[in-house]
User: Which sequence fits this backbone?
DNA sequence: TTACGTGCAAACGTTTTGCACAAAC
DNA sequence: GTTTGTGCAAAACGTTTGCACGTAA
């Protein structure tokens, strides 16, 4: 079985997984929307697309796809899992008002991990770790919520 | 009701909350250990200290204390909530082998948020946000696990 | 024919809630 | 006496698993 779209098929098989119908729909959805979906949201979006899927199948395939590196998995500040198709190194902007999450692509390659200025006493401990990845999460207020708040207080 | 220890009482009341027995025990535990406990771990530690607590009380007070800013709440990469008493700006080192989490204090004040190098096209979007906090999570292998892995492969 | 993917339902662990009682303001 | 905190039990929630069936290698 292959997806209707070659780039989706290739993306899955390139990581050693079979391009099954469920996986194709999941990856296509993430590629099309560039969203950070929770499993529940994906279920609803897939239903809306006329591609309904069992919740068990969704979870099973999200696990496989993220373990294989086809899609990215992370846990939002609210504690629920989210998935995206962005494999480029990027940071997250999280709106503390509406919860929206937006990507900001990092300028450098993932391997060139930017050092953080740390306390002198903690530097030796940091040096003893083998650091593989750095994830930055900015929290603040998104443009839309800033406007809404200003309007409300006016 | 006040805690036995004045600094614990003060820390709670300073944020507008009553210093009840349950809250005193929670805050004292976090101050004493500097750990990043999950609710389950805290429950066990409190039991060990001879200060058992109902799980409902624990969750209710963790929510109140973290909302009030007395303690910090965050969600680990595994998706479970963790709490600490460290209010200084700091980053997290997460061991991908054993899951241990260690603090590395930031060198600068929380307000002086270090900029991250981002893609030129994304810079305008970032500029429109009102950024309030930056959280960095380093993922890698802790010293202990490095040693264990080397021993295993030798 | 053997392994893998899918879907239903049940199980699981974590977190929240309804309620009764006790304590503090 | 009204508000607030505590604890038990039950519920809700997100996630995982067991099993039967269908599909692909």
Assistant:
């Amino acid at each position: 079985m292959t997806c209707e779209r070659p780039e989706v098929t290739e993306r899955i098989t390139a990581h050693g997984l079979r391009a099954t119908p469920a996986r194709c729909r999941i990856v296509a959805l993430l590629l099309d929307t560039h969203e950070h979906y929770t499993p529940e949201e994906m279920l609803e979006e897939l239903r809306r697309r006329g591609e309904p899927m069992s919740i068990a199948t969704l979870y099973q395939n999200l696990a496989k796809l993220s373990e294989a590196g086809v899609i990215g998995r992370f846990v939002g500040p609210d504690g629920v899992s989210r998935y995206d198709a962005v494999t480029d190194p990027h940071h997250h902007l999280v709106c503390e008002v509406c919860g929206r999450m937006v990507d900001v692509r990092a300028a450098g390659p993932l391997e060139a991990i930017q050092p953080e200025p740390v306390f002198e006493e903690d530097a030796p401990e940091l040096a003893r770790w083998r650091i593989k990845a750095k994830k930055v999460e900015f929290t603040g207020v998104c443009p839309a919520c800033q406007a809404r708040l200003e309007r409300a207080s006016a």
